[in-house]
Design goal:
349 residues, Rossmann fold, 2 domains, nine-stranded mixed β-sheet, disordered N terminus
Length: 349
């Protein structure tokens, strides 16, 4: 039997097919000079690249180049024709000079594999914010703009600013900073001037405690800035947290959900649990909970943010992206529970 499909139904189908097509991306992983990398590049690449400079990691932590092509920072960039790339750096620790060399090597590798980059924006987090600032000042060619999230621009374990800063950026720099960490970005913005720097405050506490939507908003602002459309130089960059429906299933033990991503470097678990799941279990800040998988258990405390977790203890917190993260401060939650990305875990009070 032949079924007739309405013109409107066919139009919706074609639009959905087009949307799926535009989100297709090739994700490649590899190693350059001992540094791991991950690159996500769309089929319809438009010559634009976002490079990510991560923050400080303990010297004994595994090298990792975590990149989630489906998150709400990367996916919209891919859809708009941007590629996104991240390096682990060749080693962990306070590695400013090595990190800049590894970012340059990654950009060169990308050009070799994908072609000339017409525009490159670097996004630096924490220590990566110092790296991004130095690159904006000329430490690396081929970067037209920088977004620094929770930037630390000081010397390692010293109460002074980094020795080679010139305070004269050659490319626009937008500092996106939580309200309790304004000191360094505010100082740089004031000393370098507003011609080439902007300071956007996120009105919540925490180190690099920003959402995908806030980070994306900053990158798009710098992109427009490069085109001559300067953003507000002092702005409230806060985007209200995402409220998500629950996808967890109930059981006698509590709730079961999936792990969205297990961090290679830290072992932190971004899960599909959301605020509604914490509410249904009656969990609030200061409460204790149990996370379990395959017979292994981890006791956690509910905290506002990861920096509130006790050293060596498990913690659980809700990110501004609307997902629950499970971690061990100074440990590895993924190893403790024996889980990886895509596995199921149980959460109970």
């Amino acid at each position: 039997m032949i079924r007739l499909v309405s013109v409107e139904t066919m139009r919706v189908f074609l639009l959905l097919l087009l949307c799926v097509s535009c989100l297709r991306a090739e994700v490649t992983r590899g190693e350059i000079g001992g540094a791991k990398f991950t690159i996500a590049a769309p089929e319809s690449w438009q010559g634009r690249l976002v490079l990510i400079a991560h923050g400080y990691r303990p010297e004994n932590a595994p090298l990792g180049a975590d990149l989630d092509a489906s998150d709400e920072f990367v996916a919209p960039l891919l859809k708009d024709g941007w590629a996104v790339a991240i390096t682990s750096y060749r080693r962990n620790g306070w590695v400013i000079e090595d990190a800049i060399l590894d970012l340059k090597a990654l950009r060169d590798h990308f050009v070799e594999k994908h072609g000339a980059v017409k525009r490159c924006i670097l996004v630096g987090n924490s220590m990566g914010g110092l790296i991004g600032t130095l690159i904006a000042e000329g430490a690396m060619d081929g970067v037209q703009g920088v977004v620094n999230i929770g930037a630390y621009i000081g010397e390692w374990q010293k109460e002074e600013f980094y020795h080679s800063l010139t305070w004269k950026p050659k490319a626009p720099v937008l500092f996106l900073t939580n309200q309790d960490e304004l000191e360094h970005p505010k100082h740089y913005h004031g000393k370098a001037g507003a011609d080439m720097t902007a300071l956007w405050e996120v009105r919540r506490n925490g180190h690099c405690n920003t959402s995908d939507a806030e980070n994306l908003q900053a990158v798009l602002a710098v992109n427009a800035w490069i085109d001559g459309k300067a953003p507000d130089k002092n702005k409230d960059g806060t985007v209200p947290p995402t409220i998500r429906p629950s996808s967890a299933t109930k059981s006698d033990a509590g709730l079961t959900g999936k792990i969205r991503m297990a961090s290679e470097s830290w072992g932190n678990l971004s899960t599909e649990f959301v605020a509604a799941d914490l509410e249904s279990l009656g969990l609030k800040i200061g409460d204790k909970a149990t996370v379990s998988s395959g017979g292994k258990k981890l006791e956690v405390s509910v905290v506002n943010y990861r920096s509130d977790a006790e050293q060596g203890k498990g913690a659980l917190y809700l990110t501004p992206n609307g997902w629950v993260v499970i971690m061990i401060n100074g440990g590895n939650a993924a190893k403790a529970l024996g889980v990886k990305t895509g596995d199921s875990i149980q959460l109970s009070k």
